[in-house]
Amino acid sequence: MYDVYTTINRRAVRGHVCWNPAAEEKKSAHTDEQKPSLLFWIPQSIHRICLIMFTRVPSLARAQAVRSLNPLSALQLAPTVRPLTLQRARFSTTSRCLNATSTSSSSTAGSASKKPNIPLWIRIKTASTFAFATTVVLGATALAGLVIYLVVAEIVLPSGDTQVFNKAVGLIEKDIKAQELLKMEPGARLKAYGESSDNKWTRNRPIASTRRVDKSGKEHLFMRFHVESKAKHGSVQLETVQADVLHPEYSYIYLDVPGEKRHYIIAPPKPKLLGSRDPNTGFLGVKWGPKSN
């Protein structure tokens, strides 16, 4: 059991190493007599462990005490001290985590319960920005609606100026008398435009039109434009009564050609005279019949 404590006595004799058995046996016997037994070290180790664990020894003193122990007792002590040290470290770490968690939760609850303090100038700035953006959006929407209404009223609806103008030009081109006055060739198209100006481009000549409302609430459209063939030139005037938005009625359309008599494409209604009466009606608007004998 104690063969590990035997050593080899080596002596250097003239550069060679030799072994002396007698000296080795004597030395091993002397070592066995001085070597204490294992039972001698166990009580001392237990006593020193109790001193370390149950007395508040400074860290430096504790380290010196552990160093002063026998290597065998230190090896036996290490498995016992290490779990206690780890347990204390784990307990301290857990307590710190619980304290940090409780602190963070309390701070979160306090911040949630408190309302954010926003300065007055930031509130005013936010309100003014929102009001300005709302005004811009509403203005853009109104402008877009107005543009759509004008486009529909002037171009799409039959009562618009564009539709009335196109229909009047078509009626003039189909009228035989107007073709003779303007000396148009069969199947030829007229050039129609608005009031003459210094501009040579026909598309820049606007059509003159006026709208009025009579006493009965009906809207009247008065329009004047020019027509031109390869031979002659004439001016057209018309009037429409907007009894229905989709079906305007033409009161009259006439064509004036220089040097020719005015020609009515659509003749105006004849006005009723004050003294005229229907021959089929009698006195006071009653037909009395033949006088009986």
Provide a descriptive summary of the structure in words.
By secondary structure, the chain is α+β, with helices and mostly antiparallel strands. The protein contains seven helices and eight strands. Helix 2 runs parallel beside helix 4. The N terminus is likely disordered. The chain is rod-shaped, with a radius of gyration of 62 Å. Among the domains are: 37 residues; 106 residues, Nuclear Transport Factor 2, Chain: A (Roll). Helices cover 48% and strands 17% of the residues.
CATH architecture of the domain at 161-266: Roll
The assigned structural class equals alpha+beta
Gap from first CA to last CA: 179 Å
N-to-C SSE string, H for helix and E for strand: EEHHHHHHHEEEEEE
Binned, the helix content reads: 40-55%
Kindly summarize this structure in a few lines.
The protein is α+β, with helices and mostly antiparallel strands and 293 residues long. 48% of the residues lie in helices and 17% in strands.
